[in-house]
Design goal:
Layout lengths: L1 H15 L23 E2 L21 E2 L6 H32 L6 E2 L14 E2 L9 H11 L2 H11 L9 H16 L5 E11 L7 E4 L2 E4 L5 E2 L4 E9 L5 H9 L8 E5 L5 H10 L4 E5 L15 E2 L32 E4 L2 H10 L26 E6 L2 E14 L4 E11 L7 H24 L6 E8 L7 H9 L1 H4 L3 E6 L9 E6 L4 H8 L12 H5 L4 H5 L10 H5 L5 E7 L15 H7 L4 H21 L7 H25 L4 H5 L4 H23 L5 H16 L25 H12 L7 H23 L10
Parallel strand pairs: 8-12, 9-10, 10-11, 11-13, 16-17, 16-18, 18-20
Antiparallel strand pairs: 1-2, 3-4, 5-15, 6-7, 6-14, 9-14, 15-17, 19-20
Amino acid sequence: MAATMDHARSTISKIFCGEPRSYMRFNLAQNIEGDSSQVEMKLSNDDEEAPNSEGAPRHQDTYSRRPSRPAKNVIFYVIGVLLIFVIGYLIGYLTNRRQDLKTVDCSSDSDSDSDPENQPVTPRATAIEAEPTLDWSDIRNILRGKLSAEALRGRLREFSLSSHEAGSKEDELLANTVFSAFKTYNMNPWTDEHFVKLQSLSSGSPNKVRFGAEEIGRPAGYLAYSASGTKEGRVVYAHYGQPEDFKYVADMKIDLAGSVVLLRAGKISFAEKVANAAKLKAVAVLIYPDPVNYSNIQNEALYGHVHLGSGDPFTPGFPSFNHTQFPPAQSSGLPGILAQTITVEMAAKIFQKMGGANAPSFWDEGRLPVVYKLGSENDTVSVEVNNVLAEKMIHNVFGVIKGFVDADRYVVIGAQRDSWGPGYAKSTVGTTMLVELARAISDMVEHDGFKPRRSIVFASWSAGEYGSVGATEWLEGYLASLNMKAFTYINLDGAVTGSQTFKAAASPLLYRLIQTTLREVISPKASEKTLFEEVSGSNWELSVMEPMRMDDSAYPFTAFSGIPSVSFRFTKSAGEYEFLGTAQDNEERLSSATEGRTAQFAASAAQFAGQMALRLVHDHLLRLDVERYGIKVRSYVAQINRRIDQLRQSNVVSAGKLEALTVNWLASAVGSFRRASSAIISDMQNSDLNDVETCRIINDRLMGVEHNFLSPYVSAKDVPFRHVVFGSGSHTLAALVEHLNALKMDAPESDTDLFRNQFALATWTIQGCANTLAGNVWALDNEI
């Protein structure tokens, strides 16, 4: 702009002030009133110098002009110069305006981060070429074309091993294979080493079970993190070991203190079964696979763990990096009692020797050729566990596809790599899907013009069989770095275990995205139908969604780190794939469960995971459904309110204490969350997607929801699952409901003052989440 103005001033000076101080060649043609007058100026240069009469070069600049002009021509020249000035000004203004617009384009916000948890970068770098060139239908179709059953079939063969236990050479071999694949796809791979304590069977001292003096057997399977030693007590059968099962046993006047409890596998995790027994002061637990749940397992050993938590239980709340100064601590989730799996044959021998009353008829009948008894006082069983605890080095492997706009915001896709035995459904299929998704999406970026706004981190975890150890240690190590950066976790473990139906467990924030994706992924069973048409029925949520269990690999992401997560699987219409945690989880068994179409179902599962991830990194605004979370929280408020009313009517608690017991505070906090949800939805609908700052602020508000449901009033070390909705402990909304039930029954552990304290802290956790969702401090609702 300054150059244009200087040019104009120079021209005016030439016209009105005589000869210029310097000259340049130009033509200014005027056709006003037919005047063809011209001005020609010439600046000499070396190439154009002509010799003078003596042959010497001429050094004087020459120019020619018409010797005289009418006065009106001067006016025309002035008008022409003014026109040039105006045109130059407009050109300069429009040029600068275009540059300004480039710097505020929402889709051009670029960031680069090869190692998301270690190397944060500035989130404001912009480039107009970062604007995605593909619409969503293009992206979906390209991904579908790159994830074929044939490609997955070949990769399944590559990752199939007979055994790849955590910390073994086979586990390391697979880690190197995944790392090499990520490197081939230019994903800047890196590894994460942890030194964790894992349990295994003793090579010299086998575990044993005796009934009286008779040895029942020496199990080949085991439960990691069981206590070691020998315990003896009366044997009591307690069905699946759920709280209601133990309540029935207690109502039958059977004292479980000092007992050995016999339980079926299924319904709830091994860790929950053992924790429930430990609360009642049992000394040991035996778990067997009943044929009613495990019809194809005969004398196969079961493997698992009994840590009621995740990660290395001897470094609770902090990572097990090398040279970390570990305090003498252990997780509160370690049971402290013996736990051992036994075979069907061993269980049958114990039942045959047991006395006492028959098991109740409303407990579903097992299929052992024996009468199921509760046990008598004279039925004595001895359990000996000699598991060995050892420190092992494990590797997590990562690769990243960087976003072109907000590279420091990322979705994580992960799969467990280790297993006891072949682990074909447990880990091989998931690892295959992980690497194939990495290949397909990398290829889309490199060759198809796909430019994700946000990044995708691919993670291959080790020690998943011991309770998501590798994943949890990573979360513990980078907890602060992951906050407000990792906004979703997609779990690929066990994604194919059958062929009859589709199930998913997720944070409510992801429900709407799951529904949308089901409508877009083609069913592997019928090419003319989508998954939604195939499995949803009249109520998709009732047909597809289920609660997330504590032993789900995605659970610590939500309950410990506050990252919305999802697990999903093709499975049987009734029951579970019974070979998980056994040596029979191999290609043949899974092929039978999928009717010979394992690769086709794996391709559809990869499509489902890939489309969710791509939708999250493609759109300007994150597809996180805050309204659905409000429904979940309001359902708890309704339960609490109903029980408080029942408590008032029961007259168990004194009137003075009940007077202050009201649900109004909690209802007000939930109301604040609902209003904040409505406000942000309105902001999203009315936002300018080309406004960088607006997009970023809205997405940050959405990303904070899950994290702010983590209670700030409990320690991550002592209570790792701090989530008030999905966590575990007295701080949760579920615990409030249970405490009200205990108050109504006047149970010894109930305490009105303690309840009011827990109630207040849960209320303020929800209010804090509402405040963050609302955004700026002047937008907060202070009605509470």
